[in-house]
Amino acid sequence: MKPSRLTTASSDYTPADVYCGLRDQILRLPAERTAPGNTVGALMETGYERAVATLVVLEDGTTSLYFSNGGGIIGAGQHKPVVAAALAFLQAASRNTALMEPTASYPLPRRGHTRFYVLSTDGSWTGEALEEDLGNNRQPLSPLFHLAHAVIAAVRQHSGPPGKA
């Protein structure tokens, strides 16, 4: 199965079908909501050597970590520490759309890059930078990057062993 129009394969990766299906389902959520102006979710995707890691946080508390090679952790939002970190990330993502560009396409990041998506009933926004620059506070989106990593740390601490990465 080829990636759908939402999961745009990059020259760096060929994502697994299960990853494409989960990612596409998330990216379609704003179209399914009716209340205007609501942030539906936020994603942070980082391109690593062998796979893309996608953190998904949704308004209903759903928090998952997917890997483009097919592994992942689904349903981590059942744990209070994960919910608290995820809510902080989602609120910050919603406040930082001015640092991003509106988008209607959803390419995967290149190796060494991190891309954010904010999904709203009013549209979607994206921003991308080198992971190293974000991690070393050299980008305006660095605080969002660190909040997302706090979510990932909480997910790893309160979930079983991760899938393949």
Explained architecture:
It is a single chain. With 165 residues, the chain is α+β, with helices and mostly antiparallel strands. It has one domain (17-158). The protein is built from five helices and seven strands, in the order H-H-E-E-E-E-H-E-E-E-H-H. It has helices spanning 17-27, 29-32, 80-95, 131-135, 142-158; strands at 39-47, 52-58, 63-67, 72-73, 101-103, 113-120, 123-130. Strands 4-3-2-1-6-7-5 form a seven-stranded antiparallel β-sheet, sandwiched between helices. A hairpin with a 4-residue loop joins strand 2 and strand 3 (63-67). Helix 3 (80-95) packs antiparallel against helix 5. The longest helix has 17 residues, at 142-158. The protein is globular. The two termini are 21 Å apart. The model is unreliable at 1-5 (pLDDT under 50).
The helix-strand sequence is: HHEEEEHEEEHH
Percentage beta strand: 25-35%
N/C terminus separation: 21 Å
Strand order of the largest sheet: 4-3-2-1-6-7-5
Indicate how many domains the architecture comprises. Answer: 1
List segments where confidence is low: pLDDT < 50 over at least 5 consecutive residues: 1-5
Query: Which percent range fits the helix content?
Result: 25-40%
Mean pLDDT, rounded to whole units? 88
Radius of gyration: 14 Å
Query: Could you tell me the number of beta strands?
Result: 7
From the spread of the alpha carbons, the general shape counts as globular
